[in-house]
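Final report, Chapter 2: Outcomes

The project's central promise was a pipeline that accepts a single protein chain and returns its three-dimensional structure in a standardized token representation, suitable for archiving and comparison. That pipeline is now operational. To close this chapter, we reproduce one record exactly as it appears in the project archive, with the input sequence first and the structure output second.
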Amino acid sequence: MFRAFVVQIGLVFAICAAMASVAHAQQKTLGTFGDWTAVVDGTGPKKLCYVGGKPKKSKGEYSKRDAVHFLVTNRPADKVKAEVSATAGYTYKAGKDAQVEIGGKTFKLFTRGGNAWAYDAKGDKALVSAMKDGKEMIVRGTSSRGTQTTDTYSLSGFEEALAAIDQACAGK
């Protein structure tokens, strides 16, 4: 009986690996625009589109940090357009907001685990508008260990990358 269970678990893992391979095959880069890359993932009703950027420079007294990036995502099936999210490369300090600064304007993002989001669609819209008009974006966060980080992103090409995903997820 235990052996049959192990065989079933192995089969489940094989199916999951095959599904991940198919999902990855459905991901398509629409292009790199300045310092931002536009991607469409999937087809049909569950298709999503996003632009992603990586910091040009990062500061903080940390010994190790995982991947750091900032995304703006469209999920038409969920009626979500231009949802912002930041990935810190560490676990954020619980209850402590991340901050984004663009051209003297500051935006707060709530944190959970290693990610941060705007509090609502109005916050997403204001932040994306500032990103379109700005030249540089600074994201500040505090890790669960109290380490403060500052990530500086170039906004070169952001508006063009956003236009590419807007078109791809509108079905045009």
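Archive annotation: The chain is about 30% helix and 40% strand.
This record, like all others produced under the grant, will remain available to the consortium after the project formally closes.
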